[in-house]
Amino acid sequence: MEFLSTLGEKFYQTFIYEQRYLYFLEGLKYTVVIALASAFLGLVIGTIIALIRDYYKENKKILILKKIADFYVYIIRGTPTLLQLMILYYVIFKTSTISVILVGILAFSINSSAYVAEIIRAGFESNSLDGQREAAKTLGLKYFTTMKNIIFPQAIKQIFPALGNECITLLKETSIAGYIGIVELIKASDIVSSRTYDYFFPLIVSALIYLFLTFILTKLMNYGERKLNHDV
Amino acid sequence: MMYKIINLFKNFGKVKVLKNINLEIKKGEKVVIIGPSGSGKSTLLRCLNTLEKPSKGKILFEGKDIYSKENQTNLYKMGMVFQSFNLFENLTVLENIVLAPIKNKLMTKEEAIKKAREYLKQIHLLDKENMYPEDLSGGQKQRVAIIRTLIMNPDVILFDEPTSALDAEMIDEVLNLMKEVAEGGMTMIVVTHELGFAREFASRVIFMNEGKILEDGTPEEIFENPKTERLKSFLKKVR
């Protein structure tokens, strides 16, 4: 009985007292906002990078842009995300008044874009598309017409599961945003713990929220995959 | 002269695939290129529409360098039919055929669809126009691929082993369509292992071996009176 009442007291302290559940809601909000915005921007930047590299490969033009893209991917994949986040915040935007949330979104977008670029590249370079590219060329179709009408729709289908994985990775990786002072889910639970001297509820609840978010993401991805395969 | 090939060499790394090819092909000719595997037949064909870049030498198409701007912007003038069909897997049969004429602004969408349906009717695949390539047999895919090339009204069609990936019972439907195309006066250059077809179809047969043209003549000359030992033994083995 005493154990249960202690548990009840801890629950009360963690969530109800001083409306502390609001911390978790705020944290959830920033986690979701940063993850969504970064996933979208990462996809856009990653696609552009993949296109630059593919265009070079097919047309042997824009070598400089291609080298820059290669270097970008090399740097981003070769350093820890946390380091990129901190460099962006403490070095590049040190004197800027830009919102810390935006810095976070930018950092995670850039980070994700490098991985997305590699995923898309694998899709573009899939062997099954080589012959179709050749056929398109002999039919006088231009590079971008071919990409838009033939290569991209098929590539996206092939890489969809990998992109889904990247989204889940990104969602979890936003948990380091607390290092630059963003109160996302982990930081929020940390703040509460420091008030209550209890880690059980804050951490378990954070975990449950992450699991719930990835559960929804997985469901969405499965649905999208079936849709792309004309099964729905 | 449609094609004039001058001192053509092609290496893949250290491997010399084409060794000094000189060849002229006239409008309306039906040229069949035969030879053992690895003799450079397909590579030569792929050089003719710049899918492969020669290591040395020159190819003139309609009097102009094949890499000239004019030829490069009109690559569809040199149509190609592939061994593996290469239909666009994400598009229906009809979309496969009309995409290029519409995007190249050779026809309006309505004209392209009308023309495509005429062709599809001719090859008895009109009822398949809304199907995807994965739902077709190999022979059907290849015939659609031929139509897709024909609708661009090319000056020449290059066939790269068009029946090699087909089951035996589908080979004839493709070869028959090729004969029909030939009757329309199309210039055709065909790489194939179907010697019976070559004999019947070709106005000219070229025998390649180890990157060189060893013999070049009428089907009678090549099949009845082979001059080189290499061709004689090739014909014996294949028969």
Labels describing this entry:
heterodimer; A: 232 residues; mainly alpha; MetI-like fold; 9 helices; 0% strand; B: 239 residues; alpha/beta; four-stranded antiparallel beta sheet; globular
Kindly describe this structure.
The complex is a heterodimer of chains A (232) and B (239). With 232 residues, chain A is an all-alpha fold. Chain A has a single domain, classed as MetI-like fold. The N and C termini of chain A lie far apart (52 Å). Chain B has 239 residues and is α/β, with parallel strands linked by helices. Helices cover 37% and strands 25% of the residues of chain B. A 6-stranded mixed beta sheet of chain B has the order 6-7-8-3-9-10, with helices on both faces. Chains A and B meet through helix 6 and helix 7 of A and strand 6, helix 3 and helix 5 of B.
Could you give a quick summary of the protein structure above?
Chain A has helices spanning 2-16, 21-59, 63-78, 81-92, 100-124, 127-138, 143-173, 185-196, 200-228. Chain A has 232 residues and is an all-alpha fold. At the A-B interface, helix 6 and helix 7 of A face strand 6, helix 3 and helix 5 of B.
